[in-house]
Write a structure and sequence with these properties.
Shape: elongated
Largest sheet: 5 strands, antiparallel
Radius of gyration: 24 Å
Mean pLDDT: 85
Strand order of the largest sheet: 1-5-4-3-2
Length: 334
């Protein structure tokens, strides 16, 4: 990015001052600044000053940077460019400035959260279609959805391993298992089989949501954790909305609803890529081999419960509440 300025002595002094807005700079030479702290992998700003006779200066400001927003870079390209040019903190930025690691972790978790939101919505969107194919009524639908809610037991089993196996490895493995269990539902010979696969899939999905909340709480600065949870909730809503986007396929054929369960398979390469790029939680890494971490296991458990409550409250596909089946014309996401 190249920006031209015509400024007086006061304006020149301002340009030569290290920035402390969206990014924090440090001086590395005359009219040259580099990254001190901010959501960038790299940052460099240089000034080329030509003095005028009337007390004005023509300044060519050159800024090169590489953001840490991972696959979300196209979404943030213009907003970041405007914020960098304006030299102020944008309204959409977190209260506490994130560094490159925290930004990367939040963006990667957001990718997993989109998949998680989709997986948590498919059964409530397709239960009526499946019941029509299998010739079952409203009672069978209600029983199936009630049984699926028992997946919370699976979720508790997943998060119980988080303090022993690590957040990153368990998060990715659980997400992949949830995709596989959901895809298996496409082969259902009956409503009982679909309910069984969804019991497992929804339990794993809830476990992923809890682990994402714990991971975010451990990586984000104290003043930006609520911001992080809000971003993740929006991503869950995006994933849930994607399930609704695909739903018209179910109207094309009596068995068309099965395609909705196969769509998450395309996310497997992305989840594997996230697993390779996502670092282990700093909190977990610091506590590896610590006897105190074992003694304080109840604290970790309480953190998981808090993360679950924070994530499920705003999530449109939350499994905290039971929603009875509704007619085809008024299906909603639970």
């Amino acid at each position: 990015m190249v920006v031209s300025h015509e400024v007086d002595d006061r304006g020149l002094a301002e340009l030569r001052r290290p920035r402390d807005d969206l990014v924090s700079e440090v001086v590395v030479g005359r009219d040259r600044f580099t990254l001190d702290h901010g959501p960038f992998h790299s940052w460099e700003r240089t000034l080329q000053v030509d003095g005028g006779r009337d007390g004005t200066h023509r300044v060519v400001e050159t800024i090169t940077y590489r953001t840490a927003v991972a696959v979300w870079r196209p979404l943030f390209a213009l907003p970041l460019r405007w914020a960098v040019r304006a030299r102020r903190v944008p309204w959409w930025a977190p209260p506490d400035r994130l560094d490159a690691r925290a930004t990367r972790v939040l963006c990667l978790l957001a990718c997993v959260q989109v998949v998680d939101g989709y997986l948590g919505t498919v059964i409530t969107q397709t239960i009526t279609f499946a019941s029509d194919e299998f010739g079952r009524g409203d009672t069978a639908q209600g029983v199936t959805l009630a049984v699926v809610r028992l997946g919370i037991v699976v979720a508790l089993g997943v998060v119980a391993l988080a303090d022993r196996r690590g957040r990153r490895r368990l998060l990715v493995a659980t997400a992949l298992a949830a995709v596989a269990a959901t895809a298996l539902g496409a082969l259902s010979p009956g409503l009982w089989f679909l309910g069984s696969t969804q019991l497992l899939a929804r339990g794993l999905t809830m476990g992923v949501g809890i682990l994402i909340g714990v991971f975010a709480a451990e990586e984000l600065p104290r003043g930006s954790r609520a911001y992080g949870v809000s971003v993740l909730a929006l991503c869950a809503a995006l994933g849930a909305g994607m399930a609704v986007w695909v739903l018209p396929v179910a109207d094309l054929d009596p068995r068309g609803w099965r395609a909705v369960y196969l769509v998450p398979v395309v996310a497997i390469p992305g989840l594997v890529a996230v697993g390779r790029r996502l670092p282990e939680s700093l909190r977990y890494t610091a506590n590896i081999g610590s006897e105190q971490a074992v003694l304080n296991g109840n604290i970790g458990g309480r953190r998981k419960v808090e993360g679950y409550r924070l994530l499920c409250w705003p999530s449109p596909r939350s499994s905290c509440w039971y929603s009875p089946p509704r007619p085809v014309s008024s299906r909603t996401t639970s």
